[in-house]
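name: query_chain
kind: protein
chains: 1
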Amino acid sequence: MFRTTIKATNYGLLASKKDRNRLAALRNVFIGQTKKALDREQWNLASVFATQAQFCREALEAEILDRQVSEIFREARI
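structure:
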């Protein structure tokens, strides 16, 4: 999966509709696995799953994030 926010957002910006659907489904799987690991008190494993769920969210919201960053830089130049 992803190792950084930058890789996740770059993937998200180029993702097709099919890829975005897969990311959404995968995010749900990671969230479920996080909850199960927490129930078993497997803290390290839960943190890995939670991080991957977060990266999936960042990829899915890449366009929004990109727009927000562009606005920040545009306002800074004014």
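note: The chain has four helices and no strands.
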